[in-house]
């Protein structure tokens, strides 16, 4: 094998890695590959990569020698310790200016650390989110790179060539410094959790509430997919509901109702708490998965309490289906608004210069949350780059007000029917809280001052001036430190 002739190298030949390699090969890039289990290299070259320009190596030294300088090495290995191990093993064979790209689902704080560590060695580092699953990797994913700014020019031709396209524009653009790329991917995954939970709640309301068959619900989702709810997840949900098992019955009914997760939704919820951003819908989506996993305990509780019955009858099924549609759309708007609130706060906290409209474009194609809806988000930030909240944009404001009646009716009817819809409910509660000029936090602050002398501000005094009251007549004048979240 000729040394120094490959444009890019990739380590990690699981499904995503193999498909990205084939994608790059299709676009004219010569790719070198390596895998810790070396036999996978030969299997790949003799299988899916046969009769291509892809070359393989049986050691890291041989792998690095195959690459043009400055070397571009993409890691698609399990997040965590494996990434650090491969970085350490690669260092002896790399030269100043070479680039390591972590394309896995790494935590953004790890990416921040790795960027500093790798740059200290004279090398470049990128942590990039890659979304779209195996199909996206093969035919065009959404790619969200961030890290060493000088590295963007090295990977831009490759990443933008292999990425999905939305209206001819690549769903890949530079996100920002150090961990920005993986942070944006994390929030993408959190929003994905929210979208999936909302769709499942809509399905549950139609299935349990209206007693519609899976086939009927599939038809409803197919109809929804031709309008404002057009999205990949709505599309595949309709397909799932129509899918039959080998005996001709609905396969979805045979799937155990315990959801699993890989952690990115939880990371999003935890980051929102760290940054004091009320990302309530994504948090509810995570908690719903956790509650579903308590299957054995739920079985006991179902026998203990039975199911709630209020003898509610939905007389106009078509009207209620439209209400569920409106509730789903309005809740989706709130979910994305919360996600963008988190991105804005993270950018301020970590010093990132995020392009919010550009992020919407990157999510517009290739990724799991791709939808027509994202085009409106991009337009909102093009109109007002400093927009503080998506809910204040004229388009989304009008959409919320239009769907508000149906949204409220769905949440109320679900409560009467005993059908849980935590994401619908929490998004409506957030909307009502966000639009409230006055919340009962005045009483909360009084309680805190009463039992802990935590002080409070007054509406008739300037902000930042704190007061304490001796509520019982036996307290002192010493107060606890006042601080803001």
Automatic annotation (TrEMBL):
Domain 6-phosphogluconate dehydrogenase C-terminal per the UniProt entry, residue ranges: 181-472
Positions that bind substrate: 105, 131-133, 188-189, 193, 262, 289, 448, 454
Family, as annotated: Belongs to the 6-phosphogluconate dehydrogenase family.
Protein name: 6-phosphogluconate dehydrogenase, decarboxylating
GO BP: any one term: pentose-phosphate shunt
Originating organism: Galdieria sulphuraria (Red alga)
InterPro entries in alphabetical order: 6-PGluconate_DH-like_C_sf, 6PGD_dom2, 6PGDH_C, 6PGDH_Gnd/GntZ, 6PGDH_NADP-bd, 6PGdom_BS, NAD(P)-bd_dom_sf, Pgluconate_DH
Chain residues that bind NADP(+): 12-17, 35-37, 77-79, 105
Family annotation (SMART domains): 6PGD
Record field: catalytic activity: 6-phospho-D-gluconate + NADP(+) = D-ribulose 5-phosphate + CO2 + NADPH
Protein purpose: Catalyzes the oxidative decarboxylation of 6-phosphogluconate to ribulose 5-phosphate and CO(2), with concomitant reduction of NADP to NADPH.
């Amino acid at each position: 094998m000729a040394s120094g002739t490959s444009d890019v190298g990739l380590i990690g030949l699981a499904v995503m890695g193999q498909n990205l390699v084939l994608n790059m090969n299709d676009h004219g890039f010569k790719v070198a590959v390596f895998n810790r289990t070396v036999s996978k290299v030969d299997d790949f070259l003799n299988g899916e990569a046969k009769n291509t320009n892809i070359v393989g190596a049986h050691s890291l030294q041989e792998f690095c020698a195959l690459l043009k300088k400055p070397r571009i090495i993409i890691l698609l290995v399990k997040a965590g310790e494996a990434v650090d191990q491969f970085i350490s093993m690669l260092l002896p064979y790399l030269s100043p200016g070479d680039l390591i790209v972590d394309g896995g689902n790494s935590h953004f704080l790890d990416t921040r650390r790795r960027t500093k560590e790798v740059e200290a060695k004279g090398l470049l580092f990128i942590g990039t989110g890659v979304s779209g699953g195996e199909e996206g990797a093969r035919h065009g994913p959404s790619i969200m790179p961030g890290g060493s700014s000088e590295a963007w020019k090295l990977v831009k031709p490759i990443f933008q060539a292999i990425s999905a396209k939305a209206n001819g524009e690549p769903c890949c653009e530079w996100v920002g410094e150090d961990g920005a790329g993986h942070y944006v991917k994390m929030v993408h995954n959190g929003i994905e959790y929210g979208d999936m939970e909302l769709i499942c709640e809509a399905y549950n309301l139609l299935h349990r509430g209206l007693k519609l068959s899976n086939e009927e619900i599939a038809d409803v989702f197919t109809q929804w997919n031709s309008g404002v709810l057009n999205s990949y997840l709505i599309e595949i949900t309709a397909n799932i509901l129509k899918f039959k098992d080998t005996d001709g019955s609905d396969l979805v009914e045979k799937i155990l109702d315990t959801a699993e997760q890989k952690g990115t939704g939880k990371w999003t919820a935890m980051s929102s708490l760290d940054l004091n951003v009320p990302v309530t819908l994504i948090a509810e989506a995570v908690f719903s998965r956790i509650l579903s996993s308590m299957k054995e305990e739920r079985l006991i509780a179902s026998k203990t309490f039975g199911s709630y019955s209020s003898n509610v009858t939905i007389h106009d099924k078509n009207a209620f289906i439209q209400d569920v549609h409106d509730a789903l759309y309005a809740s989706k708007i709130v979910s994305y608004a919360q996600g963008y609130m988190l991105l804005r706060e993270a950018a301020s906290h970590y010093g990132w210069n995020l392009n919010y409209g550009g992020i919407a474009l990157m999510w517009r194609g290739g990724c799991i949350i791709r939808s027509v809806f994202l085009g409106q988000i991009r337009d909102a930030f093009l109109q007002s780059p400093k927009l503080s909240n998506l809910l204040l944009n004229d388009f989304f404001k009008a959409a919320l007000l239009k769907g508000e009646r149906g949204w409220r009716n769905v949440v109320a009817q679900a409560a009467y029917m005993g059908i849980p819809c935590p994401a619908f409910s929490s998004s409506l509660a957030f909307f009502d809280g966000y639009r409230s000029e006055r919340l009962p936090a005045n009483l909360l602050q009084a309680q805190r001052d009463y039992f802990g002398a935590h002080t409070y501000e007054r509406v008739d005094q300037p902000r930042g001036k704190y007061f304490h009251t001796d509520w019982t007549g036996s307290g002192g004048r010493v107060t606890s430190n006042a601080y803001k979240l």
